[in-house]
Design brief:
Radius of gyration: 17 Å
Helix content: 40-55%
Strand order of the largest sheet: 1-2-4-3
CATH topology: NADH Oxidase
Strand content: 15-25%
Number of domains: 1
Distance between the termini: 41 Å
CATH architecture: 3-Layer(aba) Sandwich
Number of helices: 7
Order of helices and strands: HHEHHEHEHEH
Largest sheet: 4 strands, antiparallel
CATH class: Alpha Beta
Length: 179
């Protein structure tokens, strides 16, 4: 049975617990392909993805944990995010090529991420968009040596638990209609 767009939007959740089973490269390619159909500033297609699994993921999460250990302020959920990245089969690092330096390029990559998350959900995969990596931005940039800007990390795996929907603001609470 095919999932409708409305179902994908309403049912997608940020998954934080995953089964210990691999995700095929074919499925990862499918979710990245969905990302490439996002709208982008001047059709710049500013998104880039680094796919981490196995040893490359372990090296990245080891670096992330070591860098967190150096910080001496409240890191919020950062260690939880690190634990999650260590346990999930795949972590995607999302980049913005930022070729023109426009803020709309960030919007473009964010739209690509949303497509990716929805496609993953439609395939039965769980994902979580991780922003905590920004606490160690410089170290991650130095580690990967990419000419782009870091935008996010995304965990990808088979959900062990699907969280319940959290309350959402109504249309009336988030919008105004001017005539």
């Amino acid at each position: 049975m095919t999932m409708t767009v409305d179902e994908a939007i309403r049912e997608r959740r940020s998954v934080r617990a995953y089964e210990n089973r691999p995700v095929s490269k074919d499925l990862i390619r499918q979710i990245i392909e969905a990302a490439t159909f996002a709208p982008s500033a001047k059709n710049g297609q500013q998104w880039r993805f680094t796919v981490l699994s196995g040893e490359s993921k372990k090296q990245f999460t080891d670096l992330y944990r070591q860098e967190l250990d150096k910080l001496d302020f409240d890191l919020g959920s950062s260690y939880g995010s690190c634990n999650m990245m260590e346990k999930v089969p795949v972590v995607l690092i999302v980049w913005n090529t930022n070729e023109r330096g426009w803020s709309t390029e960030v919007h473009s990559v964010a739209a690509a991420v949303q497509n990716l998350l929805l496609k993953a959900h439609s395939l039965g995969l769980g994902t979580c968009w991780i922003g905590d990596i920004f606490y160690t931005y410089r170290a991650i940039m130095d580690y990967f040596k990419k000419p782009w800007n870091l935008l996010a990390a995304i965990t990808v795996g088979w959900p062990a638990v699907i969280p319940k929907m959290k309350p959402r603001l109504s249309v009336d609470e988030v919008s105004e209609f001017l005539e």
